[in-house]
Amino acid sequence: MEFNVPFLKPKSVDCSDLPLFDFEKFSNKESIENGGYGAVFTADFHPHGVGNPAVKLVVKKMLGEDLEDKKNFVKEARILQELEHPNIVHFEEMCSTPLALVLEYVYFDFQPFGINLKVSSLAEFVATLDSFNCEGCDSPHIFSGICKDIATGLQYLHNNDIAHRDLKPVNVLVSNQHYCKLSRVKIGKAWKECPVVCKLTDFGESRSREVHTQSILKSQTNCVNHGTPVYMAPEILVDATRLAVATIEDMKRDDIWALSITLFVLLNPCVKYPYQREIERATEKGQTSHQYGVR
């Protein structure tokens, strides 16, 4: 009897319900960030064929082969697909081979202000302002607009029974694309009316009452201590008060804590480690084993 050599192939996840895109159609890929979980880069796509104007997009490519990670990656795409709001990053499509999310490219261009630099996150934006003598960049209407955008985006998520679970400055995108290529006169007017637009991004840790995987209950999770420690509420971070199971409503309240710390960091960029002493005391008492960090 002839012996058939077994053929092994990675387990796959079904994403046929999502709009799919051919990864090979991207060109001019430029890396933004690389990590153990995946790679993020910008890429050009020519919707009307090569030779016609290109659209620059952000591609978040998964590198690992863990099945649960793949399920959560597709879950993030399904959550994003259901969202349509000016303060939420726009989901374009999904690539199945390799597994990748395709998102709108959001950036703040400092060129109108005399600096040849583009940044994407609120963390980068604040760090840039903090490193220059920026006359007029500390105007209250700038920060009030940023706060309003973040809060409005979060309110939209919560109204749709979605908890972000990892809200922090690095997961808030900033943009001035609505005026960065206008004339000086029009830029001045737009700066006064709406200097920065913010959009929430990175829904890898998010939970939705409707979108879930087989390993995650619809309205609750046992994995309550996910996120960045300084942005986690005490009932999530500290062992003595940690919830055994967190519902969507519990996770929404944790988002509110993360929002408050995000706004604190925004208004106090020189304070690199807010609540560090409190967290260190909790660690010394054996109440939490988390490493402190802020981004």
From TrEMBL:
| Molecular functions (GO terms) | ATP binding; protein serine/threonine kinase activity
**Biological classification of the source:** Eukaryota, Metazoa, Cnidaria, Anthozoa, Hexacorallia
Q: Which organism is it from?
A: Desmophyllum pertusum
Q: What protein is this chain from?
A: Protein kinase domain-containing protein
Ranges for domain Protein kinase come to: 26-295
Pfam families, A to Z: Pkinase
**What Gene3D superfamilies does UniProt report for this protein, alphabetically?**
Phosphorylase Kinase, domain 1, Transferase(Phosphotransferase) domain 1
